[in-house]
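Troubleshooting log. The previous run stalled partway through. Resubmitting the same two chains, unchanged.
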Amino acid sequence: MNKAVVEIRNVDFAYDDILVLKDITLTIEEGNFLGIVGPNGSGKTTLLKLILGLIHPLRGSVRVFGQAPELARHSIGYVPQHAEIDPGFPISVMDVVLIGRLGKAPLFGGYRKIDREMAEEALKEVEIYEFRSQHFGTLSGGQKQRVLMARALVGKPEMLLLDEPTASIDGRVEQDIYELLKRLNEKVTIVLVSHDLGFISTYVNRVACVNRSLVCNPTEHVTADVIEACYSGPVHMIKHKCEL
Amino acid sequence: MFEFIHVLQNQTFMQNAVIVGLLASVACGIMGTYVVVRRVVFISGGISHTVLGGMGAAYYYGFNPIHGAFVVAIMAALLIGFVSLRYHQHEDTLIGALWAVGMAVGILFIYKTPGYNVDLMSYLFGNILMVGRESVKLVACLDLLIISIVLLFYKRFLAVCFDEEYTRLQGIGVMSTYLLLLCLIAITVVMLIQVVGIVLVIALLTLPAATARYFAPSLGSMMILASIFGAVFTTSGLIVSYEQNLPSGATIIVIAGTAYIVATVLKGLVSRFRSYDKK
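Second attempt completed without errors. Output:
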């Protein structure tokens, strides 16, 4: 068994009085390519935010690289949904990626040469270097996604967390993104959240299905059958519960 | 026009007015850019209106109203900033309350101040022709302060405005950076109040930056362009108001607003034309 990167034990989480996650226990190992799936509003993004330490569990514990999540942030690269970013913001691709160096750059003044070099390297890694001087808002969805991935990679993370990396991206580009992630997975642990299952199964090597609680065994290696079984079954059950 | 130039050459009040207008445009271009991209127009409006409370109190107790304005503007910026980050869902209610209560307190103080209350109108609508040498020096110093802080924290301010959550993940103190930014906005608001008054300050803070946004690819270029627009709007507003014998603050704002609307329409036409071209 590989080294555990993330250990989530018996975690409950609630927004105000609404329980979003219930008794979640999940271990993510080094080198995993884990897909967290589940329907909309099932608590997938909440789970990512718990790992990042942006929010704290009501009960239970979250450890990342054996530490409290806040202390492990420098080892994590986070890729949020690009749709939440204002496309009218006057900022170049390069400046977006440089934000990934902010924590390591000097407090005052501009970025150093080394920061710029690392940003260029990250842009090359995700194959978007030629767009470096362009206005971020003018890029397509897939290109924006790559820029945000470069921003996450520029901090040299040991783990990448991606929130719906293929939302509002067409199928062809989606495939490119997953191929890129597969390549990155040779070096880093990857956790990605997605509501759509069709594609994910070809690339991930483990899957965890969240729907308030963790409804399928994540240690199992993924086959189409496993996904089918853990997704469609519980989804129907939850729907019935909602109608009551 | 010739009359204006003649007055400008011979009268210190007009020289002061033009210089204060130009100096205030610098701060207005820089901080207005942050107000527009971070979408804190309502927060800035809240700060500027709350300021009347400070001005009224200072006036009543015999202090310089501008000093009262600075104290209250900084307090309002810190309070609103804290609430907007920590209790986001109550942000607009709190700003609305501060906005109205600040103004009400100011009006009560001014009402209770013995003597003829001539100053109320000039607080509300500004009177740039009344500014003295002292104000010119003060505005110049504040410009220097704002420029140096923005140069020091440029990349942090950019990050906080662009993606607050990611900045927090970088281990940066988002709250302190955001509060510093709001304090600089508060200082700018007080500077601009002397030019156009409390009621119109929000327009002068946002319109040059909003117009510049259509043409600027980066935050830095947007600041420079917004400062230039601000300078053009205030100076041309002064000229027109002097020539036509109109209130200066309102004239400046009407010019700025017209320029913004024209730029918006032009931008819309250009992008429509381009998408038509592609087809």
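Takeaways: Residues 28 and 205 of chain B are 5 Å apart (CA to CA). The two ends of chain B are 48 Å apart (CA to CA).
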